[in-house]
Amino acid sequence: MRVISVVGARPQFVKLAPMARAFDAASVEHNVIHTGQHYDANMSDAFFDGFGLAAPDWNLAVGSGSHGAQTAEILARIEPVLIAERPDWVLVYGDTNSTIAAALAAVKLGIPLAHLEAGLRSFNRSMPEEHNRVLTDHCADLLLAPTDTAAHHLEREGLSERTRVVGDVMVDVLLDVDRNVRDTSLPASFPTEDFVLATIHRPFNTDDPDRLRSLLDQLARFDCPVVLPAHPRLTAAADRADLVLERGAIKVIEPLAYHQLVHVLGRSRAVVTDSGGLQKEAYVLGRTTTTVRTETEWTETLDQGWNVLVENLGDLETLALRPPPTTDRGQPYGDGAAAHRSVAEMRSWAFR
Ligand code: UD1
User: Fold this and answer.
1) Ligand 1 closest atom vs CA 236
2) Whose CA is nearest to atom 19 of ligand 1?
3) I want to staple 51 with a disulfide (CB 3.0 to 4.6 A). Which of 17, 110, 121, 247 is the partner?
4) Distance between CA 133 and CA 135 in Å, rounded?
5) pTM for the complete prediction?
């Protein structure tokens, strides 16, 4: 079996790491196309280096652009590679413009398509990621779902025959990295007292200057330091709106490599975020999270109050620093072996 993975944006490099390892362990031939959607060293190379991943076999270098232009450019540049290579599977990850573009390219060429992290739904049709997920799921031949909830969404859309619940590969990598960084110390520049880890990058929060201003005002008022690794979209949006990120409690840092992020998360008191991945990572490591969004794809994090959604910012500090629940979180995202299960499903599917 020969598989080509297509990745392009930061969270996909994280998901690629356990998959590449699992393909290796199963002696599956595996190549990687990087679309170039993310290109800054700390948004891309740092992840390949940090996970010891081989450099991508192809880099399509599409760069940034409007949704339509970026998606179309990836589609056009990926097609000749897939025609020349004709793998047994194209594997796409998550919900970015790279995901949908590669899915369209594969399905139109009749190359079997597997979608990792299938079945997530926010039911918010204004999110670009929601369009990407729904359309990719309907293109795919094999839907590798992280949870029963995701499988249920796929069933409601008539896709259950193609669905397999494998667990969440982000848990595979998180548990592994957390074990390795737990006993190391944070860089000297980090706060030694309690701190909150905050990340903001969704258009919903960055692209409306009034919303961004009130979010930053609230974070600046916290009693403890708020460490804010700034995604390029946030930095650009703050510049456009003439807003200073670093003020009051807010301590701005460069985007973190994955191992650093896990390290900082493990030392933090609580999390404020609009990232999907971080909500789940915080849940698995037992950090209370306040998600500054109207909905989440990872609804299991909400069940016992480990994660709370907040649309109207109100008193963000009191909410963010609430005491953690005392209930057992269980393992709704799997046991850390999702990548191996995914490879096994691809194998048995391909040679059925
Ligand atoms: C994309 C994904 C989002 C994911 C996020 C992780 C889509 C629709 N969205 O959003 O689901 O959570 O990645 O980060 O695919 N930029 C740089 N350097 C880079 C990359 C981006 O400066 O290396 C800047 C550019 O100004 C660009 C902007 O960030 O226009 C947004 O980047 P883009 O890839 O379009 O989307 P993200 O917001 O990162």
Assistant:
1) 26
2) 38
3) 17
4) 6
5) 0.94
